Structure formats: structure tokens, C-alpha cells
């Protein structure tokens, strides 16, 4: 089970977190038993907006997260 | 719908960063010189990331800054510091004027206009059906591949359909493909040019351009300055707002955050939708079919501009009822005459509606959800941590459902059924091209007795260019929020009794 925490705070939502969440949820439909998504309040890691969005895949913190990077990290762990 | 709608790209990122920078400077009451630094803060690399040079990248950001302040697009033919132009503008009228949607000409990459090309998928096959099906003999088989003579080609697409290797592509300008009213033309340099006589300011081309070369103007700066001056600013927020600021940010939190930003009051525009649906039902019951053979809804400004500019014969059948925005603004100003009203919505063309003679005294500012999200960041308001105070319950189920395609007509129909025992045939026009087609049908007389709903954005307001959420997600949130309304029908809404 891959646990993904995705920040849904103001900064992260502005710069793409909502779209990463969408893709993750679509992926979760394909692998319902292997992905757990938790939307969390600001993780306080984005003091500079350039570090947003912030996503945690298991224990790995990803700043300036991009869709393709988050998804590939999740897929690596599913395989 | 443009393929880019709902995808977060670097174009979206830059656009939002510009909004956040503008909001930050407005909130700080910064000097004009500060604006010169924005392009450097946003493009802070040493080498170009997106274009031929960082200088061009920064010049494009500067053009975005200008339009973000509401200023006209300027060519780069004259030497003028960004801050100088800004000072002149802010010292003078500082109001946004038409044209609202503009091509940043030097950012346009001159995509080929509608043309068929043979790609290297071509195997120069023996059958070569491409050349056989061509009605104008434009396809010849050359040394390595099929070649289309662009002079002869009429873009019928037959060769593309016939090719067994999918080797022929139809190359269309994404901006022009998104424009259902054919307002995108080419200038002398073959760059996209918007024909303002045709443009209905819906903003779909802004989303569609993969080079980020089209932008609209904003009122972020003017709004925040007004709040800074201590003016009594009150917000009305469009029905599609639910969930736009993230899954953890409830409608109540958005209201609380707006108050934290300095708004004295926040109302749902859905309240205005309840007024509007009752008014439009009344007009329909009175006028159709005796005075008017059909009625079109009036809430979508781009839809009404399509009637104005493209099918003027239908214009007088578009209801003259005020839009939900106007009703909502009036309900605020009635009791607070000196207040300023900001409409917050998914819509680009509402910015233009607010400039019109009829509306300019009712609505003072229009900003989009996307612009507001940037303002929250600039103001350091963390939405997930704002304490929600009161519940909002301004509108009925059907008023709240106005934001989804079909919702407007359904609300009016419910009123007609209940109050006038009329159940009219309904035609729904969804998207720009469909709107134009529907109006053309109406003009031809085939929609007699119909209630016609026009939505320039596909999916309705939730598909607007100023949204942050994908259209289908926005639609789901709107429906869920509508379910929570204390009233089902507009005529059950107690809040309407205050005025008649």
C-alpha cells in the first residue's frame, strides 16, 4: 500500500496540487487496494511558493511536485 | 473543449504567479518601480527555459503584468519602462477598457492555420488512397512520401481518413479551433489576431493556446487598492465557487477567508439566480408565444454577445432580465448604497458585462476564482486553517445549480410549471459553436415556443476559463452543494421577500 499525502493548502492548490490530486484519484480507481490518498492541511514546507506543491509519497517528501514525478514515484512502489 | 482545460502547465503557473505578484504589490501599496522587478522574479533563471531567450520570456511576463493591471496590450516598438506606463495608467483613469482578450503578439508562435500535412508515418504505399480520394488532385506521390500541394488543398480531410498509417494530420491553430465564433484571424506577420467585431470575450482561446500567447485583463489591483483605502467592499460569489479552492476548503471557509481579506459581506450569486429564474419565468409566461416566439436566457454574457455580433436577428428574443450577477449586486447595494461590489466567478466575459452602461453602477469589480486564489496566497491567507463562522444559505437548490449546463433552463422550467402551469420545450446550447448554431436555428424559426439556454463555456459556468478545477469535478461539487440548500425552488426562498 502506497500512502500519499497531498497538501491542499492555499499555496499548493494555486500551483497545481489540485491537478496532481485529480490524477492520483484516477490512478487510485485503477489500483484501489494499493493507493491511499490523504489530503492534508498545509504541511508548512512551502514558505517559498517555489517549493509548492508539497506531496509525500510514503516517507519521501517531494517539493515543487509535478504530476509526472508524483505518479512515477507512486507507480515505482506499486510494482 | 480545449484539450488544455484542466491541465496544470507552466503557462498556468506563470499566469498565476503574475496574479500573485500583482496582488502582493497592491496589498503593500508598493511604488510603481516595484513592478519592473516582477519579470525578473518570475523568470529568475540564467538561461531561457521556455523560449529563445530569457529576455523574451521576461518581456512576455511584462506584457502579462500590464494586462493584469487592466492596461491595454502594447507592441514593443517604443522604449518605455514597464513602471512608467503603469504610473501613467494608475494616475489616470486606471479602468479596464475593451478589448478584454488580447494576443501578446510576440509570444505567438505563428502556428500554421488549418492545413493538412503528411508526417513521416507515410510509407509511400502502393495503394496510396490519399491521392485517389482527393477531390482536387492535391496529393502527389513524390520520391519519399506523399506530398500535399497547399495551394490546391481545400482541407476536406478525405486523405486523412483514407490513410491506413494515420500519416496525415490536420494542423489547426489551437486558439482558432477553440473559438466557436471564428474570431481568430492572422495579422500581416501570420500571428493570431482577434477580430474584435466577432470576439465574444469568452476566454476559451486563453486556455487553448499552448504557447500562452493570449491573455485577458484583470482588476486584481483595483480591487485590492479599494480594500486598502478602507472602502466598504462586499463580495458576491458565483455558484460554481464550491470546491474551487481545494477539497478541504468548504464554502463557509471561503466566505470566512473573503472576510479576512477585508470584505464586509459575502453573498451567493445563486440568490440572484433565484431572482433571475423567477423573472425569466414571468417574462416567458407573459410573452411566449404571443409577443415573442421563443426566449433565450440572459445570464451568460458571451451568449448574448454571440446574438449581438453573429445572429443579430435573435437579439430581441434574448431575455432582457438582469443577470444573476446584477440581481445579487442590487440586493447588496440596496441596503449599502456606498458600498463597492466585487463579483467573483469563473467567467472572463463578466468583466465586460460589468463595464456596460446598465451594470457599471451595480458591479464595481470582477475577478476570477483563479485570480482570487492568487490573492489569498499574496495575502498569506491559508484557506485550510481559516475558521468557518456562519453557514451560508442564500439560495435554492435550483439557484445553486445554475452553474452547470442545463441548470438555468431547469430552474426556469420549475418556476413555469409551478407558478404558471407551463412546461415549455427546452433547447440547451452548450459551448460556443453550439450557441451560434442554436441561435441560427432560432432565427430560421425552428425553435418556436422554446426556452433556450445559452452557455458559451462547455459544461456551463463550471467550465469557465477562470476556474481552478476540472469541469466535471466542479460540476459534481455544484450539485452536492445544491443538495444542501434549505430551499428547493426559487419561489420558496425567504430571502427573496425582501424585495420585489
Automatic annotation (TrEMBL), chain A:
Official protein name in the record: Thioredoxin-like protein
Identify the species of origin: Halanaerobium saccharolyticum
Automatic annotation (TrEMBL), chain B:
Q: Name one GO molecular function term.
A: 4 iron, 4 sulfur cluster binding
Provide the 4Fe-4S ferredoxin-type domain boundaries: 144-174, 190-219
**What is the protein name stated in its UniProt record?**
[FeFe] hydrogenase (Group B1/B3)
List the keywords (alphabetical). 4Fe-4S, Electron transport, Iron, Iron-sulfur, Metal-binding, Transport
What is the source species? Halanaerobium saccharolyticum
Q: Which InterPro entries match?
A: 4Fe4S_Fe-S-bd, 4Fe4S_Fe_S_CS, Fe_hydrogenase, Fe_hydrogenase_lsu_C, Mono_FeFe_hydrog, RnfB_subfamily
